[in-house]
Amino acid sequence: METDEIKTAWVSKSWTKKEKPWGHEMSWSSFTSGHGKLLFILKGNRTSLKFNPQKNESLLVLSGKLQVTFGDELSIKNPNSHPMITEVLEPGGCLHVQSCCPYRLEALTDCEIIEIGNYLHDSPVRIEDDYGRSDEKNT
Q1: Kindly report the CA angle at 62 between 128 and 68, in degrees rounded to 5?
Q2: 16-121: CATH homologous superfamily?
């Protein structure tokens, strides 16, 4: 098979750290449509209740005890027919969130979580926030 483009692998040291009211995150991206984050959520803190209009995410708990609240794309508009679900995840537990589905992460102990998303430039929509923040990228 002959082609004008050759696929390759590469090493990068380009990650950013952002302080958050619930802890901090370290993020990186390598492809135009994908990114990763390492989230550090401090005990007793939680992220916004939010959804992503286009991005799907998978979150893997590396350490700690994490309470996750999540729903389907109709949970906000019709909570009686589509109630939110709450579960506790420990190391190795995963939460998979499709676009337009609300979710929130709450640290029952200090937590480290890997987040992988498929749409880098999607801006989340905040539904509730404990810290008085409005809609903005990277909640």
Answers
A1: 30
A2: Jelly Rolls (2.60.120.10)
